[in-house]
Predict the structure.
Amino acid sequence: MPVKHQLLRWDETLFRDPEVFDPDFVPEQFDFREEQTRELAFQLRPGLHGARPMNTVCRGLPGTGKTTTVRKLFNEIEETTKSLVPVYINCQIDNTTFGIISEVYHRLSGHLPRASGTSTKKVFDAVARILEREHRMLVVALDDANYLLYENELNRVLYSLLRTHEVYPGTKIGVVVILSDLAVNLAERLDARVHSIFRPGEVYFSPYSATEVEEILNARARQGFYPNVLSPEMLSVVVDQTMKGGDLRVGIDLLKRAGIAAEMDGRRRIEEEDVSRAYSASRFLHLDAVIRTLQEEEKTLLRLLAENQTDNEELTGGEFYELVRQRLPLGYTRYYEIVTKLESMRLIDVNYRSGRGRSRAIALRYEPDQILGRLR
């Protein structure tokens, strides 16, 4: 007997609150990051009592709650005090010292500096004068700070922010650096003069488990959809696809796209065909986010693997290393570090296989064409 679908009227919707599925949405209920929230709050707490907030590095793979934790705490600071001003910077957008200092000035003054004829020093002097005059302190979060690692930009930004008190005594500024690259060693990348004053505490964000992903996505669905739009069975399908994608943001985007697909077909419930159609787009969110964080030699290794992997033949670790050596002056230690990093970021799988001295087989988790297209 054919299934009878209840159809939506033209003026009805499945979404109770579509903003719940937006990338920058900060949920009121934020589970499974209580420990990280406490650690970060401890680092920032001195700023609530008139002292300089402690510098912090928040580190973890993409989609592990770093940004949401920081923004949620920053919202709480804004509601609690006017003396400590939190400024969130997306370094994918503002990735120069001038752009970052201009955004800080915008937050403090309510307007941007003139785009032409204004130096970084001039804008920063204006920032420092506001802090002095209004007896305010500052905590600046640099999200995706790996975008500042090139051209020495991170050193310039941190030096400007953290040494302000030497020119303007009494100013107090703390910095939160958010990194999605587990391999970045800031101690090696920062100048001695910057590292000597930065000396951050570190908060680590581990990947979510499947159970945690299910609870988070279920909470988002309950808040964002009307009742009965997403069945437990369809939630399980979304969770499975999210774990394959390796990023919670995949699941949140998947819910949104599946809801839109069901709504466009006039149905009151999300069905498996909606999830399948949505996943074809959502599953690349993690790939896009991770590739943006890679260094050039890491991208070269990923490109070589994509160019040389076929459906019928796996590459062993030794075979792949020989290919790499022909293209890059790379020692085995550094090669091994990059392969380990690509595996930890869920771009490749590395499996041991028997029969050839327990050799390692290296395989992509995405289609080669998808990776090559993004690397171009």
Summary: The first helix runs from residue 34 to 44. Residues 98 and 116 are 11 Å apart (CA to CA). The chain is about 50% helix and 10% strand.
